[in-house]
C-alpha cells in the first residue's frame, strides 16, 4: 500500500509541477469562453446585408415590408421596372428586385404564381426565407382583414399561453423554461467534460505505461514494486491530477455565478425609471443574472458529489482498461484495435444521454445511468434534473463493484503484458493471461 502511495505521489507531483498544467488549469475556462465568443463572431461576420428593390403593382405591400439589419427593402415605381431590371447586372449596391404583381379579384394564388425575385448574384438561404416570410405575413393580414377581424382581435388570437409549472418534488418551486434550459446546458457540459477527460487521461495512462515498457524502465521499477502497485499508482496519480483541475474549475464557476448574481442584479434598480431605451441595454445583464439565479438554486453539493464520484470511479474503471492495453502492446499503432472497446461504451452513453433532455426519468435514461459501462456519463447528465437517491446509490454500488472487478482483470493482464516484448498480443492470448 505504501508503494502505491509513493507512485501516486510521484505521478501527481510530476504532472502538477509542469508550467503547462498550471497555465491550462487557470486559462482553460477563459479559453473556452473565448472560443465560444470567436465562434459567435464568425457567425456574425458571415452575415450579409442585402438591398432589395420592391416593385409593388398592387400597393398592398407599401409600408408593410419592414427593413432590418440584414435586409433593406426599397419601394420603387412600377414604371421603372424594365430599366431597373436592365441595370441590375453589375450593380454592386443592389442585390435584387422583387416584382409583386397586381392583386386582381383578391386572387392570392395568382399573386403567388406571378411574384418574382430577380437577383444580381447569389443570395443566402436565410435572406430568401425572410423575404418569403415577410410576404406571407402581409398576405395573411390582408386575408384576415377580408374576414372582418380587427387587428386587436388578431393580436389576442396570436397571444401565446404561458404555463406556470410547480414541482412538488422540489418544495413547490416554480420550474421555468429558463431553469430547464440552464439544467440542459449544465447537463450537456458536465457529460461532455466527463467523456473527454476520461478518454484524455485514460490515454495518458496508456501512453505512460507504453513509454516505460518500450524504454525498459519498467524492468527496473518492478524490481522494487509489484506490477499491480505500479499500475494502481499511475492510475490514482493521474486521477488526482484530473480532480485538481476539476476543483479549480468548479470553484471558478461558482465564484463567477455569485459575481453575476450579486453584481448585476442591483444594476437595473439604480437606473432612473421611465428610460426604456436605457433599460433595454441591460437585457443581457438581466439574462445573465437570471441564469446565475437558476444555477445557484440547483442542489450544487449533490451535483458536485455525484460528478466527482462518477468521474472518479468511471475514470479508474476505464483507465484500468487503458493501462491493460498499454501493457499488452508494443507500440501506439497496435493500441487502436483495443481502444475501440473502451471508447464505444462511453460514446453509447454520451449520445444516448442526449435523449435525456426531453425525458430525464425515462427508461433509457434510467438504464444508461445504472449500467456501469455508461453510467459515468449518463448519471452525470441526469443529475441536474434530479435523480432519486436510491437510483444514485444503486448506480454507485454497481459501478464500484464493476470497477474493482475491472482493476482485478487489468492487474492480471498488466502483470504479464508489462514484461512481454516482440509478441503481438491477441484477444485469445490476453484471455489466457486472465485465466492464469
Question: What can you see in these coordinates?
Answer:
With 436 residues, the protein is mainly alpha-helical. The chain has helices at residues 2-16, 19-45, 81-86, 108-114, 125-146, 151-158, 177-214, 217-221, 227-263, 276-280, 283-297, 300-328, 332-353, 363-370, 375-382, 389-417, 427-435, and strands at 50-56, 71-76, 96-100, 116-119, 166-167, 173-174. The strands form 2 sheets. Strands 2-1-3-4 form a 4-stranded mixed beta sheet. It has a two-stranded antiparallel ribbon with strand order 5-6. Helix 7 (177-214) packs antiparallel against helix 9 (227-263), helix 7 (177-214) packs parallel to helix 12 and helix 12 (300-328) packs antiparallel against helix 15. It is elongated.
Amino acid at each position: 500500500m505504501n508503494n502505491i502511495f509513493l507512485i501516486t505521489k510521484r505521478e501527481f507531483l510530476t504532472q502538477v509541477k509542469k508550467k503547462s498544467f498550471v497555465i491550462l488549469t487557470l486559462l482553460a475556462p477563459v479559453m473556452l469562453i473565448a472560443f465560444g465568443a470567436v465562434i459567435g463572431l464568425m457567425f456574425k461576420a458571415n452575415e450579409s446585408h442585402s438591398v432589395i428593390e420592391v416593385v409593388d403593382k398592387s400597393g398592398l405591400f407599401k409600408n408593410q415590408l419592414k427593413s432590418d439589419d440584414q435586409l433593406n427593402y426599397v419601394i420603387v415605381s412600377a414604371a421603372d421596372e424594365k430599366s431597373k431590371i436592365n441595370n441590375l447586372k453589375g450593380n454592386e449596391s443592389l442585390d435584387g428586385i422583387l416584382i409583386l404583381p397586381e392583386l386582381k379579384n383578391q386572387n392570392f394564388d395568382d399573386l403567388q404564381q406571378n411574384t418574382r425575385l430577380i437577383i444580381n448574384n447569389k443570395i443566402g438561404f436565410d435572406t430568401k426565407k425572410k423575404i418569403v416570410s415577410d410576404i406571407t405575413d402581409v398576405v395573411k393580414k390582408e386575408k384576415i382583414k377580408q374576414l372582418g377581424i380587427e387587428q386587436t382581435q388578431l393580436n389576442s388570437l396570436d397571444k401565446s399561453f404561458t404555463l406556470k409549472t410547480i414541482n412538488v418534488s422540489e418544495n413547490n418551486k416554480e420550474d421555468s423554461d429558463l431553469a430547464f434550459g440552464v439544467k440542459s446546458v449544465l447537463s450537456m457540459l458536465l457529460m461532455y467534460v466527463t467523456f473527454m477527460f476520461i478518454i484524455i487521461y485514460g490515454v495518458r495512462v496508456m501512453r505512460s505505461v507504453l513509454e516505460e515498457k518500450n524504454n525498459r524502465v519498467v524492468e527496473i521499477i518492478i524490481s522494487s514494486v509489484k506490477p499491480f502497485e505500479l499500475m494502481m499508482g499511475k492510475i490514482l496519480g493521474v486521477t488526482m491530477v484530473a480532480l485538481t483541475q476539476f476543483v479549480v474549475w468548479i470553484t471558478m464557476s461558482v465564484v463567477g455565478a455569485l459575481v453575476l448574481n450579486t453584481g448585476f442584479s442591483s444594476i437595473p434598480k439604480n437606473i432612473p425609471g421611465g428610460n426604456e431605451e436605457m433599460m433595454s441595454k441591460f437585457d443581457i445583464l438581466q439574462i445573465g443574472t437570471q441564469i446565475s439565479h437558476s444555477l445557484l438554486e440547483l442542489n450544487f453539493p449533490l451535483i458536485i458529489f455525484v460528478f466527482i464520484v462518477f468521474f472518479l470511479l468511471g475514470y479508474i474503471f476505464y483507465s484500468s482498461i487503458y493501462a491493460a492495453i498499454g501493457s499488452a502492446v508494443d507500440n501506439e499503432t497496435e493500441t487502436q484495435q483495443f481502444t475501440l472497446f473502451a471508447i464505444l461504451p462511453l460514446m453509447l452513453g454520451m449520445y444516448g444521454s442526449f435523449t435525456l433532455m426531453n425525458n430525464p426519468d425515462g427508461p433509457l435514461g434510467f438504464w444508461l445511468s445504472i449500467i456501469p459501462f455508461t453510467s459515468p456519463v449518463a448519471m452525470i447528465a441526469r443529475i441536474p434534473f434530479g435523480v432519486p437517491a436510491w437510483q444514485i446509490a444503486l448506480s454507485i454500488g454497481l459501478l464500484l463493484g464493476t470497477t474493482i472487478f475491472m482493476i482485478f482483470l487489468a492487474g492480471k493482464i498488466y502483470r504479464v503484458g508489462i514484461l512481454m516484448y516482440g509478441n503481438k498480443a491477441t484477444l485469445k492470448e490476453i484471455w489466457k493471461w486472465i485465466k492464469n
